[in-house]
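Re: [ENG-882] Designed sequences occasionally contain unexpected residues at chain ends

Forwarding the minimal case from QA. Structure tokens:
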């Protein structure tokens, strides 16, 4: 029954044996994990002799890993490098909202599989709310899996594809016959479901172009968002910002903000926007996932935060201090794709374009204090002000050179050069800070 789990644990053990883990931190973590197990109100007394070896090892590993990840960033980084465990680190360390979902049993196990071209794709479990969905999956093959890239990923409900943004990673599992990871969907608008039935459709970019179409049904009720109407106007460094409303979902918090068209600066991002309770505990921006959506007019944006949906604080405050902004005439670069030339550089020339092709642009930027968030692109428009389709935007961080890198790929289409490349992040800030009580 547990053959697959045992095989995975043996593979993980081999990977662990190759890694150097701080002995003191690991010992301390294990001791804390044992203490947690002893004091848990929900524990059940049973003899370890009666438990199968695979279950015992899995439980011990889970307690040890969870505690170690929480108390030791160095250990968390080590664990994240092990194939299949980066998902655990994401859940525990980087998003308190996801951890609250697990703690409150809102995560739902699915276990539905489909096999095509000798490749088995399993939906392990899902988290669904009105704002989006997270699908945890495992891919298995009798031979080594190639790239984890996908040609198409869509979620269907009632025969309709749910529009929005889709994100997935490239887990470092190239030499394995299985891959486990997650796919994050952020819907473009709030969904009102008429049933609990969904279907995942995706294509692999392998030689066979393998495609899957997997229906699944939820048992748990889908939680509805909690709406807080704010309509609060703020003046920050001469720029008018209106906090319209805040919606709390299990997966994320949506903060809907609008900007006065007469502002001289284009507001790019709220670098440290957060929700804070009366005890000072905060829920910050989404780290692994879409951090914001923008309206077509550039004057309305939705910013996403980690969720405190399952908490019951007496008071809640929306706070932000570091608001990224650029003069409107400096909020973009101009690039000629035909001539492979930058016609207008970035503000204070902080972004350096490293490569230009007919349908892609690569660039880099020096950052301070190892900050990996800069360099993202908001949109690209051609000379006729037409918004160009961008199938993908890749970002990565060069730790050795302390550089944020990005690459935007444009869909092959008729492009009237030159194009304007607009920033969604840039290290230039408004002066001031804000605190608004929302509860």
């Amino acid at each position: 029954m547990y053959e697959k789990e045992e095989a995975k644990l043996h593979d993980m053990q081999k990977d662990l044996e190759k890694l150097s883990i701080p002995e003191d931190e690991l010992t301390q973590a294990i001791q804390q994990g044992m203490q947690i197990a002893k004091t848990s109100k929900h524990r059940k007394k049973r003899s370890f002799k009666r438990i199968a070896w695979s279950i015992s090892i899995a439980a011990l590993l889970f307690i040890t890993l969870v505690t170690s990840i929480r108390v030791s960033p160095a250990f968390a980084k080590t664990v994240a490098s092990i194939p299949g465990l980066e998902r655990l680190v994401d859940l525990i360390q980087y998003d308190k909202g996801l951890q609250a979902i697990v703690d409150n049993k809102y995560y739902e196990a699915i276990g539905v599989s489909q096999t095509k071209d000798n490749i088995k794709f399993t939906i392990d479990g899902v988290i669904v709310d009105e704002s989006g969905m997270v699908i945890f999956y495992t891919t298995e093959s009798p031979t080594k899996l190639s790239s984890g890239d996908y040609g198409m990923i869509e979620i269907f409900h009632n025969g309709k594809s749910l529009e929005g943004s889709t994100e997935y990673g490239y887990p470092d599992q190239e030499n394995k016959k299985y891959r486990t990871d997650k796919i994050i969907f952020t819907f473009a608008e709030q969904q009102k479901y008429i049933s609990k039935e969904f279907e995942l459709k995706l294509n692999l970019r392998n030689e066979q172009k393998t495609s899957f179409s997997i229906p699944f049904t939820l048992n748990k009720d889908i939680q509805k968002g909690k709406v807080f109407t704010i309509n609060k106007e703020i003046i920050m460094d001469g720029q008018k910002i209106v906090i319209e409303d805040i919606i709390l979902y299990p997966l994320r918090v949506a903060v809907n903000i609008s900007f006065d068209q007469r502002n001289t600066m284009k507001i790019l991002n709220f670098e440290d926007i957060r929700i804070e309770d009366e005890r000072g505990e905060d829920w910050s921006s989404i780290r692994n996932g879409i951090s914001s959506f923008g309206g077509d007019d550039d004057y309305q944006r939705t910013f996403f935060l980690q969720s405190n949906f399952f908490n019951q604080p007496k008071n809640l405050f929306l706070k932000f201090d570091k608001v990224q902004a650029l003069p409107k005439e400096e909020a973009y670069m101009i690039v000629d794709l035909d001539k492979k030339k930058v016609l207008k550089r970035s503000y204070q020339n902080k972004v350096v374009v490293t490569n230009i092709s007919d349908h892609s642009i690569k660039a880099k930027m020096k950052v301070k204090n190892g900050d990996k968030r800069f360099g993202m692109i908001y949109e690209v428009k051609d000379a006729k002000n037409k918004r160009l389709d961008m199938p993908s935007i890749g970002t990565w961080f060069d730790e050795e050179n302390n550089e944020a890198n990005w690459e935007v790929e444009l869909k092959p289409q008729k492009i009237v050069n030159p194009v304007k490349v607009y920033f969604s992040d840039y290290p230039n800030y408004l002066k001031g800070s804000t605190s608004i009580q929302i509860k």
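QA comment: On inspection the terminal residues look reasonable. The first strand starts at residue 108 and ends at 116. Proposing we downgrade this to a documentation issue.
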